[in-house]
Amino acid sequence: MKKVKTITEEQLVKIQEQQKELTNLLKDIGFVEVQKHTLLHKQAGLNQDIEEFKAELEKEYGAITIDIETGNYTEIKKEE
Fold it and tell me: Is the dihedral of CA 51, 56, 57, 63 positive or negative?
């Protein structure tokens, strides 16, 4: 019968702690990735809203540049 070989208790504890920390880090990374995915979808939706509102403004005022601090705008002159 073969004799069972075993690492020291200290070594085993260190391995277990490292694996536990790795598992927790991977879980946290997964959570952050889900948050990132959600935020990217929100950004895409906001970008679409912005483009739709730009189109509304252009329909009402024509091609303009707006100062977002004051609300003042200047017309964009098209080259002939």
Answer: positive
* Pair 56, 50: CB distance under 8 Å: no
Model confidence at 1, pLDDT cuts 50, 70, 90, reads confident
Query: In whole angstroms, what is the distance from residue 57 CA to residue 71 CA?
Result: 12
The answer to whether residues 76 and 63 touch, using CB atoms and an 8 Å cutoff, is yes
Query: Is residue 39 within 8 Å of residue 26, measured between CB atoms?
Result: no
Tokens in use for 40?
Answer: 């990217």
Task: Give residue-wise pLDDT tens across range 33-80.
Answer: 999 999 999 999 999 999 999 999 999 999 999 999 999 999 998 876
Instruction: Reduce the DSSP state of residue 71 to 3 states and report it.
Output: coil
